[in-house]
Amino acid sequence: MCGIVGYIGKAQAFPVLIKGLHRLEYRGYDSAGVALINDRGSLNIYKAKGKVEELELAVEEQDITGSVGIAHTRWATHGEPSTRNAHPHCSRSERLALVHNGIIENYESLRKELILKGYGFRSDTDTEVLVQLIDDVLTSTGTDLFAAVRTALQRVTGAYAIAVIDKQNPKQIVAARKGSPLVVGISNDALYLASDATPIAEYTSDIIYLDNEQVALLEEGQQPIVSTLKGEQVTYTIRHTDIAVGQLEKNGFEHYMLKEIFEQPDTLQQAMQGCMSAAGDIQMPDWDRCKQRFLNADRILLTACGTSWHAALIAKYAIEQFAHIPCEVEYASEFRYRQPVIKDRDVMIAISQSGETADTLAAIELAKQNGAFIYSICNVQGSSIPRLSDACCYTHIGPEIGVASTKAFTAQVLVLNMLALAIGKENGHLSLKQYTSLTNEMRRLPQYITTILLQNERIAKAARTLTFAADALYLGRGFLYPIALEGALKLKEISYIHAEGYPAAEMKHGPIALVSHDLPVVVVAPKDSLYDKMVSNIREITARHGRVIAVVTEGDTQVRDISELTMTVPPTADCWYPILTIIPLQLLAYHVAVAKDCNVDQPRNLAKSVTVE
Ligand code: F6R
């Protein structure tokens, strides 16, 4: 949450910073700001409440020259979204400007201490203490900025990624991270800084991923220097990012979310390819390193947040069915603060699109300390979760920019099912015949999704009838109960219609009281092994005049005849239905949100990468 960009080089910093902020806007969009040091050594700071385009309006007619600068797009934690609380924050001496992503937990005590020293505070943020603390170290010790940042950070508890500039040292940026991500980009004539590689990808593919408690000095014309908080120099590795700039554009679609929904035939193929051997058999990445751990596991713990947690729930069904290993699915945010029983024969599967979710990281750390083996499923290369894991399977779907996760989810479900099949084949719980039939069906999924997407126009028209709904229920059973949860999450997060997902048979234990003629009930009811049970559950809804919207298998008439609207998917095996049935539900949520004129790609109060707990 919050996006940071920095530039130091021979060109003008502002265009690079603004473009970078737009690329990072998915991380937060409450306010934005920029600090630049111009050729005469003046430090100019501009801020605006709202999105990056508001900042662009605010700087019209201002001096935006300078070849060194830092910028920020905010997701508010401490202090409401306002210009006053927007970053960069400036030091009392007015020589330093600082941007921050994270939360400073001991900011109250630091603030009191600084107030006693005569420091005043202009914002309600935790961040402002950082810039004043660094200012205090600089002025009281006369040391340089690199050392002052290190000294100040040793007094700080919490999470941070920061960038600081100093008008008395106008050819430097000092950056540091702990908990929140930060990468440095190196090109021939400039150095870049960003919360992830996306703003840097169009200038260079050479990236350094900073580790926790590392501080970097970026000086014009020099290679970056990285040290620990204590000042010991660190040897870093320059890695290559494979992000293509075209992947960061909307490519003719109205929104990133729609583009990403339509990419799914390709992204599924890419994710599948990443888990296949040259001979076309399932071969999970890092398999040699983790095979024995999976085969000897007493239990598999699956942990994640949000949409990725729904993928974890599907994996429980798959792993227990195909590999017969007991699974527990844990919200990372709950797991980390319980005293869970973790044994060294446990394997934890951590699932995260961004690879930076703070709670998932903490859950991994806890499991690792207790001897569990960590296998992660991630999308963003080089992010913190794969680096903390013992082994990782990347999903290879390219950047997901729409805040509502779509293509990441289907790829996660695919590779988790593939993992379940691989373990089941290996431990003999799954017969070769079953394995072959399921993998053959798996190869048809991209084509199936292409046919589902042909219903886009029809779903768009039907979605208009849902725009006035205040609530909606989503029902599914078995492998499709998590799809009911995920469908409901998609609707609520982008259209702000209250929606709940339930296992269909649970309705009669309470929620059925909500059913009336104006409650849309979305049922996920393809012809799987629980179809007949599901039909009975749907009839309980129609008997009470609920409005049924159904996802069914092509050719179905039973559910179609009692539904107001049906969306169809091709017939497939139970374990693959989640991947097919979520597609119409993604489209439904998208079109309802568009019809309600909601900001689909940047829903209110949300940010894509949740790097604070
Ligand atoms: C919802 C959504 C979120 C994320 C959650 C975890 O559409 O995207 O619920 O799934 O914040 O994020 P990752 O997968 O990056 O750990």
Descriptive report:
With 613 residues, the protein is of the alpha/beta class. It has an eight-stranded antiparallel beta sheet. Strands 5-6-7-8-12-13 form a six-stranded antiparallel beta sheet, with helices on one face. It is globular, with a radius of gyration of 25 Å. The structure holds fructose -6-phosphate (F6R). Residues 305-308, 352-354, 357, 360, 404-405, 489, 493, 610 line the site of fructose -6-phosphate.
SSE diagram, text form:
Elements (H helix, E strand, L loop, with lengths): L2 E7 L3 H12 L6 E7 L5 E7 L2 H7 L9 E7 L14 E2 L5 E9 L2 H10 L10 H15 L3 H9 L4 E9 L5 E7 L4 E4 L3 E5 L11 E4 L4 E6 L5 E4 L10 E2 L15 H7 L1 H10 L13 H9 L3 E6 L1 H18 L3 E5 H4 L10 E7 L5 H12 L3 E6 L5 H5 L2 E4 L12 H21 L4 H12 L1 H9 L2 H8 L7 E6 L4 H15 L2 E6 L16 E5 L6 H12 L4 E7 L11 E5 L7 H19 L18
Parallel strand pairs: 15-16, 15-17, 17-18, 18-19, 20-21, 20-22, 22-23, 23-24
Antiparallel strand pairs: 1-4, 1-10, 2-3, 2-4, 5-6, 6-7, 7-8, 8-12, 9-10, 9-11, 11-14, 12-13
Helix pairs in contact: 3-4, 4-5, 7-13, 7-15, 9-13, 9-17, 13-14, 15-19, 16-19, 17-19
The structure holds fructose -6-phosphate.
The site of fructose -6-phosphate (F6R) has 14 residues, from α9 and α17.
Strand order of the largest sheet: 3-2-4-1-10-9-11-14
What's the level 1 CATH class of the largest domain?
A: Alpha Beta
Q: What is the alpha-carbon Rg in Å?
A: 25 Å
C-alpha geometry: globular
Number of strands: 24
Helical content class: 25-40%
Ions, cofactors and other bound molecules: fructose -6-phosphate
Please state roughly what percent of the residues sit in beta strands, choosing from under 5%, 5-15%, 15-25%, 25-35%, 35-45% or over 45%. 15-25%
